[in-house]
Amino acid sequence: MDGFTRLGLSSWLIEQCKQLGICKPTPVQENCIPQILEGRDCMGCAKTGSGKTAAFVLPILQKLSEDPFGIFCLVLTPTRELAYQIAEQFRVLGKPLGLKDCIIVGGMDMVAQALELSRKPHIVIATPGRLADHFRSSNTFNIKKIRFLVLDEADRLLEQGCTDFTQDLQVILEAVPVNRQTLLFSATLTDTLQELKTIAMNKPFFWESTSEVRTVEKLEQKYILVPEKVKEAYLVHLIQTFQDEHEDWSIIIFTNTCKNCQIINMMLREFSFPSVALHSMMKQKQRFAALAKFKSSVFKILVATDVAARGLDIPTVQVVINHNTPGLPKIYIHRVGRTARAGRNGIAITLVTQYDIHLVHAIEEKINMKLGEFAVKENEVLQILTQVNVSRRECEIKLECTDFDEKKEINKRKQLILEGKDPDMEAKRKAELEKIKKQKKKFKEHIKQAMLKKQDTEMHRKQRKSQEQKAAKDQQ
Ligand SMILES: Nc1ncnc2c1ncn2[C@@H]1O[C@H](COP(=O)(O)OP(=O)(O)OP(=O)(O)O)[C@@H](O)[C@H]1O
Ligand SMILES: [Mg+2]
């Protein structure tokens, strides 16, 4: 029997899969699809690029075809680009159903979204912030009857990071029915298992791929030890080398801040590399345009922040370069997972400064393998060093002349206002907190010094006493 037929999927869905080159189920699909079809909650933890999306899309489409009504399913995901990608999978696989979907993400027109929601689409794919905003501002739709709630990249949605989704998630969870099927997927679920069980309450089926190494087999993982000040020269050298040797390879460069992302992109453009940037300070239209250019291989280099670290599926990506060593092993796993997907080969190279060595050790421990050193012709790097550093500095100055930092401040204030906070009060509160922190630190230091002094006096006292005892003994 055909692999997917054995899992209980209908022939029309199997036909759709075949058209996409999906012929044999991957382990996560093999294990999770039958359980989902049986009606169980499901938590699936499988490596990057292993087909987790189809593992939830296929059984949902099958159930939808049996009893279609809207709104049938809500999918939550941490980034806007990922929401569009998931919607695309639903559309392609569910084409024979005449599926109506609706994407609710930030940066897009809210009125148009509200209108679409009121038309009762079968599937809603959303980022938590914008969907929660719709709940807060209108009551023209409800999701009280949904059958499926999916959290893709579930651990990220529960994390209290720089973008904290927990409050929005709370609003959404209050709006969905208790009687639903909940499906949670990620390549890194295990750290947040307990929290996840409070969302998938219905005795969830938990499946995790059994493999010692947490990253995919066909991914070559390397590092280069570089002094901070010459990182960019190494980066330019690496890109030049890959471009010369493999014309058709696409490369993603991850860096830590929007500003760095912007500067590196400007600098690569100065060197005539076909590069585009993707970060959260860009307008949504620019973000989509950049990604589209990269996906179509018109531009072969994408410089991105971690907004592109999770879920994005771009088969042409052969190389991932970490311009900064990720502070968390989890982030490393997702970043490098943008290459070597669905059984393909790929290389990940991490630039490591002397201050990041402990981070590499933490990564190696988590993924359960050692990174190898990437050989670089250092004399070639030296030759371009001055030119690259001058160019970086010029780009920094150019950016300073624009209102990039000012925009960042405005965005922060806008965000606070959206969260119902007063930006000025927040700034005051932060300053107060900072003051208290400083006072606490000073107090701690004071206590530490006092303790040390006390220990010192005690030690001297003991020394003196033993000397006196010794002297008394000698006299006797
Ligand atoms: N059974 C299959 N056979 C071959 N290719 C497949 C199969 N299932 C999915 N794929 C393809 O594999 C690629 C990766 O799938 P997907 O994006 O679902 O990975 P993922 O597990 O969600 O990864 P990530 O953790 O990065 O989000 C997609 O291009 C998809 O079309
Ligand atoms: Mg995915």
From TrEMBL:
Residues 218-382 form the Helicase C-terminal domain. A motif (Q motif) lies at residues 2-30. GO terms for cellular component: cytosol; nucleolus; nucleoplasm. Residues 450-476 are annotated as: Disordered. Keywords: ATP-binding, Helicase, Hydrolase, Nucleotide-binding, Nucleus, RNA-binding. The keyword Hydrolase applies. SMART domains: DEXDc, HELICc. It catalyses: ATP + H2O = ADP + phosphate + H(+). Residues 453-476 have a biased composition (Basic and acidic residues). Its EC number is 3.6.4.13. One of its GO terms (molecular function) is RNA binding. Pfam families: DEAD, Helicase_C. Residues 33-207 form the Helicase ATP-binding domain. It is found in: Cytoplasm; Nucleus, Nucleolus. PROSITE patterns: DEAD_ATP_HELICASE, HELICASE_ATP_BIND_1, HELICASE_CTER, Q_MOTIF. Residues 2-30 form the DEAD-box RNA helicase Q domain. Gene3D superfamilies: P-loop containing nucleotide triphosphate hydrolases (3.40.50.300). Belongs to the DEAD box helicase family. DDX49/DBP8 subfamily. ATP-dependent RNA helicase that plays a role in various aspects of RNA metabolism including the regulation of mRNA export and the levels of pre-ribosomal RNA. Regulates the stability and synthesis of pre-ribosomal RNA and thereby regulates cell proliferation. Also possesses antiviral activity by recognizing gammaherpesvirus transcripts in the context of lytic reactivation. This is Probable ATP-dependent RNA helicase DDX49. It comes from Hymenochirus boettgeri (Congo dwarf clawed frog). The lineage of its organism: Eukaryota, Metazoa, Chordata, Craniata, Vertebrata.
